């Protein structure tokens, strides 16, 4: 029943507004703007944009993609630039995106699918481009009671412990290390893990 309700864009958006704290959302938006989602980078894509909670707060030049046709239709009705696509097989040309990011998508996927999505994001990321992932983690036993409730209600069946999620991202990055020029994994124990990976330039020293 909860899954059916969350298919309704307005209810899903309400849940996403609360699954991260307001402070965490401000941190994420500030990070994305700093990385180029303020219009400074030529092509920016959000993978798994859902109902556009973050997409609508950024530059109108940012594209969004989601597997849900209902969400895509909802966002097109708002005038946003979106298209339907599977995150594991993005309908985007390789090396064409300056900043590619996803927020609260990976806890819906098992580890193998997470690696596939990261691989697709890395494929479309151009040289000197940036990949950003943000996702919820299991909160401590105490605190953030609303966040814990929303994680329980959420359709994602793979909300990970922070260290597990960090190790998963690190292992993927190690596999493409020759193309990585910078990487940072920062955890916010009450909320989320943020990963930033920058791609090496096409011309290597």
What does this structure look like?
This protein has 7 helices and 7 strands, in the order αααββαββαβααββ. It has about 200 residues and is α/β, with parallel strands linked by helices. β6 and β7 (about 190-200) form a beta hairpin. The radius of gyration is 16 Å and the shape is globular. The model is unreliable at about 1-5 (pLDDT under 50).
What tags apply to this protein structure?
single chain; 205 residues; 7 helices
**Number of alpha- plus pi-helical segments:** 7
End-to-end distance, in Å?
A: 56 Å
How would the global form be characterised?
A: globular
Low-confidence stretches: 1-6
Write the layout of secondary structure elements.
Elements: H1 2-6, H2 9-19, H3 22-37, E1 44-47, E2 63-66, H4 69-76, E3 82-84, E4 97-103, H5 111-124, E5 125-136, H6 145-153, H7 162-175, E6 180-188, E7 192-199
Parallel strand pairs: 1-2, 1-4, 2-3, 4-5
Antiparallel strand pairs: 5-7, 6-7
Task: Give a quick rundown of the structure.
This protein has 205 residues and is an alpha/beta fold. The protein is built from seven helices and seven strands; from the N terminus they run αααββαββαβααββ. The chain is globular and about 40 Å long.
